[in-house]
Amino acid sequence: MKLRRRQSKDQTGTPYEYTHMPLLPGHKNASATPSLLHPPPPGGEEEARSRGEGGDLHTGRILSSDIRLEETRVTKMTAGFQLGVIGSLTLSVASSVSIVICNKALISTLGFPFATTLTSWHLLMTFCTLHVAQRMRFFEPKAIDGQTVILFGLLNGTSIGLLNLSLGFNSIGFYQMTKLAIIPFTVMLETIFLKKRFSETIKFSLLILLLGVGIASVTDLKLNLLGSVLSGLAIATTCVGQILTNTIQKKLKVSSTQLLYQSAPYQAAILFATGPFVDQLLTNRSVFAHKYSAPVVGFIVLSCLIAVSVNFSTFLVIGTTSPVTYQVLGHLKTCLVLSFGYTLLHDPFTMRNILGILVAIFGMALYSYFSVRESKKKSAAGDALPVSQMPEKEVEPLLATKDVDNDSKKANGVSHDC
């Protein structure tokens, strides 16, 4: 194949040179489609094309086709991601409500009140299940900086113990207020440290949600100094842990499964060490002296199996959405549990409970609507993020990590739903 150099002139009469490369015989444009190694100045290409020597007429069509293919691929990926988020939310709600029912039977009916120790068994079962899954190649493990994953695991384990202590040293009403305070505290931390911006509509919907849950679940508000301190520590550790669950997955680019697999042993370890003492402090009974009948053992095993799904979905939801969305989902679970208690267990239910649940559901609907609307706006602007907040600035994780191409993650703990 020979390259032929040709001379031509543009519309101003200025000469220029371009190279003509004949195509293979039989090509539909073999006679009239040169390759311009030295593009002509404006006007020259039109003149060359009028002579039958013009440039590539198919380039624009090819680029347009590539753009359409890329848009189709992105649309399919977005649809798949949205289905994954819906699936993780559904799994979280179903598994959390199931474990509440199971634990209620275990604690109230069968008389096994050792919630903190039970949670340590949950985390051990979660780790063992993930280890088997990893050995069977269901997922690939990813090394995470040791200091980060240890501190992360200990923080999450501590938050579970503190929430249980808060429940033990406070009234039910004050404990519910403690759980309600997690959302505004999380918003505050993300605004200060992660520079996230929450729109006024999102804040308004969260306010409606918290008001509804407060009406439905908060009764007496008896205060005491020790209980208040424990509640404050529980709020702080829970918020930071959940923010880190989201931040570590995104910064270190690890999946929820990889992070849970790495951190579960440390969470289980701290609860194994402290659980029996915390439970004895709260119940005046020893977990080692308890009589383990067949029904008790059966419900413990069932609770541990459900907990695998609870812990996995917790990491998945926080990683794919945001800590605030996870807390909103948690209050939906509260409403479902209250409704379940009324319809199936015939727990006392008043008009105040009904009104509160309706207001809370309205707040959740507003939050979902505004979140989806803002996500669509960001998608249209070319920034398709799955979270409800405005675009955020890249910052360092709250836990310092070494400059390694590794990653880590956080867990919420089953006892939050118990």
TrEMBL record:
Name used for this protein in its record:
Sugar phosphate transporter domain-containing protein
List GO terms (cellular component aspect).
membrane
Record PANTHER family:
SOLUTE CARRIER FAMILY 35
Keyword Ligase recorded? no
> According to the UniProt record, where is the region Disordered?
1-59
Organism whose genome encodes this protein: Zizania palustris (Northern wild rice)
Its localization reads: Membrane
Recorded topology in the membrane: Multi-pass membrane protein
Task: List membrane-spanning regions.
Answer: 83-101, 107-128, 149-167, 173-194, 201-219, 225-247, 298-319, 351-370
Where in the numbering of this chain does the Sugar phosphate transporter domain appear?
Answer: 95-368
Ranges of Basic and acidic residues compositional bias? 46-59
Q: Which Pfam families match?
A: TPT
Which keywords does this Swiss-Prot/TrEMBL entry list? Membrane, Transmembrane, Transmembrane helix
